[in-house]
Amino acid sequence: MNVENIEDEETKFRRDAHRYLVESGERDRLVQILNDKLKACDWQHKVTICCRELLSEIGVDNITVDAFVERITPKAKDLVPNDVKHEMVNIIQTTLEKKFNVR
């Protein structure tokens, strides 16, 4: 099996997994779990503070929405606790393993 075949299989699996998650409603369930975990760790409040700080630094009239999103997104991702990231990966992995019988 060559590298191209492996990439094709991975691409197909990703497409099939995404389709399954959306069509089965699992994606919505996973999003709700993530939202609950982010609320529990006060993530939104922390992101709001970062947004205010960025706007104070730059000025609301000196930044576009796209530039604002581009600058705040990495900070918001960094504020997600590692245990939440790991737990979500485990939940998604378990869900897909059950559906596709893989490990």
Low confidence ranges: none
Number of helices: 5
What summary fits the major beta sheet?
A: none
Strand content: under 5%
What is the CATH homology-level superfamily of the domain at 41-93? ENY2/SUS1
Name of the CATH architecture of the domain at 41-93: Orthogonal Bundle
User: What CATH first level of the domain at 41-93 would be assigned?
Assistant: Mainly Alpha
What structural class do you assign from the helix and strand content?
mainly alpha
Give the termini separation: 19 Å
Oligomer: single chain
Q: Per CATH, what is the topology of the domain at 41-93?
A: Serum Albumin, Chain A, Domain 1
Rounded Rg: 18 Å
Q: Roughly how much helix do the residues carry, as a percent range?
A: over 70%
Q: What is the H/E order?
A: HHHHH
